[in-house]
Amino acid sequence: MYKSEMNFSIIIPLYNEGENITNLNDEILKVIKIILAENKFNFEIVYVDDGSTDNTFQILNDLNNSISTIILKNEKNLSQSTSILNGIEISSYENIILLDGDMQNDPKDFIPMIKEYIKNENTIVHGYRKYRKDPYWSKIVPSKFANYIVRKLTNSKISDHGCSLKIFNKKIIKTENFFGDFHRLFAAQINQNIVSIKEVEVNHRPRIKGKSNYGFERIFRVLIDLIFMNFSKNERSYFYTIGFLGLFSFFLSLVSFIYMVYLKLFLNISFIETPLPIIFIFFSLSGLIFFSIVLMLETIKKMFSNQNTSKKKYEIFKK
């Protein structure tokens, strides 16, 4: 028995999952029916078609669910993370449940995860696929390595950052500050002094239909995201440090230039015979490089902050 009168938006990003949608939708409806038998919850399902090239959108349009179902279609393939953020943006309810569309996640895990979620406020419930049913070398090994890197470079203690099953309140997170593989580094980007994260072991099933869209390349994406994530958390310190290095380099180039002029005018020594021209050029270029880095980082920062305020690249087809 759960607390009554809670509302949940179930967000499911899809890319070429036409073979899985009908069965997945049926499973979700059965689990919702079980939960509603004892609780006064409200649910909605938000399917996000991320520019699929198969019949995903047509099958979504043919769904005739008894509960509110929203179909959102990206104008092109924007990424799983962007699809999730778009779904959160148009969702009607505060409490968000994330679920993959490949049927490897089990909707039955909603029941224990919701039970854990309602115990405390400001809590994120994060799935943990203890027994994964994936190819070992192409998916499990990269995942283990990526999780190890994330734990080493952040304060996150989560065992399985890549698990899509999560429940959280969208009001306690600032999704506009997220970037990159949002769904993989979600827990690592959360301020755990404000929000607690609880892991729940979940069932993981082998992929029966469709094709996985990622593998070893995820490690490189995670590394890039970690670099920019750490920069965004300490941007003031980085700006001052890099800016100071730039100013110091220009100062040294100025000193070397003044000394070259002094040698020529007062001691009649040709500075060409000294290493001073090379030193002057080196520190001048160093100063330009440091300030270019500052400008580049500022541009990247503005790009991330503006990406969610730009024109939305999706349409809502069904409510």
Structure description:
- With 319 residues, the protein is α/β, with parallel strands linked by helices.
- It folds into 2 domains: 7-233, Spore Coat Polysaccharide Biosynthesis Protein SpsA, Chain A (Alpha-Beta Complex); 235-304.
- 44% of the residues lie in helices and 15% in strands.
- The protein has helices spanning 21-36, 56-62, 80-90, 110-117, 136-153, 217-233, 235-266, 276-306; strands spanning 7-14, 42-49, 68-74, 95-98, 123-128, 166-169, 196-201, 314-318.
- It has an 8-stranded mixed sheet with strand order 7-5-6-4-1-2-3-8, with helices on both faces.
- Helix 1 (21-36) links the parallel strand 1 (7-14) and strand 2.
- Helix 7 (235-266) runs antiparallel to helix 8 (276-306).
- The longest helix has 32 residues, at 235-266.
- The protein starts with 6 loop residues before the first strand and ends with a strand.
- The mean pLDDT is 85.
- Calculate Rg over CA atoms: 26 Å
Oligomer: single chain
Known CATH architecture of the largest domain: Alpha-Beta Complex
Mean pLDDT: 85
- State the domain count: 2
Largest sheet: 8 strands, mixed
Count the strands?
A: 8
Write down the overall geometry. elongated
Number of helices: 8
Stated plainly, the CATH topology of the largest domain is called: Spore Coat Polysaccharide Biosynthesis Protein SpsA, Chain A
Order of helices and strands: EHEHEHEHEHEEHHHE
What is the helix fraction of residues, given as a range?
Answer: 40-55%
Could you list the spans in which at least 5 consecutive residues all have pLDDT below 50? none
The secondary structure category is alpha/beta
Question: CATH homologous superfamily name of the largest domain?
Answer: Spore Coat Polysaccharide Biosynthesis Protein SpsA, Chain A
Task: Look at the structure and give the CATH class of the largest domain.
Answer: Alpha Beta
Output the strand order for the largest sheet. 7-5-6-4-1-2-3-8
N-to-C span: 29 Å
